């Protein structure tokens, strides 16, 4: 039975010549788990918002969208609210009350459900989602993963037929994201709820999905089962193949035959058949130097040990809490980042990573300890001196950087205080616009951009001031695989120029490929730090899919390139 029928839908935003959706036709059956992906700005979120009339963007639309055989906008408001659940990208944007139990009940109260039924459904959802232990807590005390789980539970209390989710795990750490997606799969499998979601974490999503729909410039180019969809993208040599799961990309890069693996389990079995027992018989099992530049890695480790290079960022015994009687968020944190270093910081939601970046940027001040940025206390340094040529900060929420009506005006605003001619300003802006692929977006309002487009525009603003030290908070959030590679290349060049990078990220694969040193943040402090290959080779969960796939043969194989080399060597 069809739950949605989308026929020849074309949609354009006001004052935009190019349509955001072009002649889209889809059928979604009841109980299906459908993943939608595509490059940033391809129309994914726009398509999903058309599935719930209350969230449909303003603009002109042609074609029809039928829900249960009837135009979706013709259903009454109560039916739309109760039967079509929608989970937003940012957990904080959807929470409307102050207590967990009240949030669970809010939707039912709005529908006028009687009190006994509300109590029953709230108890049922709290039990199903494992919320009992934090049922009476303030929502402000919850981690990002808990907030997103609460959003999902609040919607499920209304017994929807469809769940529509727009990148629901983009702000979650890997473990919280896996738990959230596992719960989503359980809902689909055990309750038969239809799931339609956009997601860049295809590693975890595709094994759960019945279909993968790929959009490109507003049009559907692939609509098949995940394995067949990946094969189709590879045949097309499409950039979105770079977003496919690691086992699939490793299989393609190795040139070996055999069935295409989709999961880590399938990847391990395929790798065993390709490599045989030769690696296990010949290998020592010891963690090796990174394959890319072992001499450079050894030299860098010696420099760190001898303190040969000055510190770009230094935190000494730092303590911080948000209120006098609040618990400490940062606890006895000491961290030294040398000039020209590229440090990646990983860890769970709510451990204090973003707070640490705010302390380095001078937005917050510790009540104990010392912070130095290029030898200066950021909290006592004027913003003009701190942020022009010294420190660049990309916040977790890119919208906080936008102050003008168009992307172009926002970029020019960044150079207002610079002693540059108009021609020099135009040249510098043109350079970052080319890098961030912002040409078609310059006249748009920043808030009208997709999440990935906003991230690119915010990064372009930060890079305009050519900082010596770059602080990045979740820089790959909302970015497709193609632009992640472009970002990685830019950061590599930035690093090779002697600049310093401190990056907080939940994107384990990106950290493993580009950071030179990685640290684990836990309970307000750094508990482990090592050169990147050694760091990830020693972890069980905070490591790459490639490493989980190949570490029984070679623990030093951390990136996809490492595993591909492993396959080719043995062959």
Can you tell me about this structure?
By secondary structure, the protein is of the alpha/beta class. Helix content is 38%, strand content 21%. The protein has 22 helices and 19 strands. The strands form four sheets. It has a six-stranded mixed sheet. Helix 9 packs parallel to helix 22. The longest helix is centred in the first third of the chain and has 18 residues, at 174-191.
Question: Which short descriptors sum up this protein?
Answer:
single chain, 571 residues, alpha/beta, six-stranded mixed sheet, 22 helices, 21% strand
Chart the SSEs and their pairings.
Blueprint: E1 2-12, E2 21-29, E3 33-38, H1 44-49, E4 60-67, E5 70-71, H2 77-83, E6 84-87, H3 100-110, H4 115-128, H5 144-156, E7 162-166, H6 174-191, E8 194-198, H7 202-205, E9 211-216, E10 219-224, H8 226-236, H9 246-254, H10 264-275, H11 278-282, H12 294-306, E11 311-320, E12 330-338, E13 342-346, H13 353-360, E14 368-373, H14 383-387, E15 391-394, H15 407-414, H16 422-436, H17 451-464, E16 469-473, H18 481-496, E17 500-504, H19 508-514, E18 517-522, E19 525-531, H20 532-537, H21 545-550, H22 560-570
Parallel strand pairs: 3-8, 3-9, 6-7, 7-8, 13-17, 13-18, 15-16, 16-17
Antiparallel strand pairs: 1-2, 1-4, 4-5, 9-10, 11-12, 11-14, 18-19
Helix pairs in contact: 3-4, 3-5, 9-22, 15-17, 16-17
Summarize this structure briefly.
It contains 22 helices and 19 strands. With 571 residues, the chain is an alpha/beta fold. The strands form four sheets. Strands 6-7-8-3-9-10 form a six-stranded mixed beta sheet.
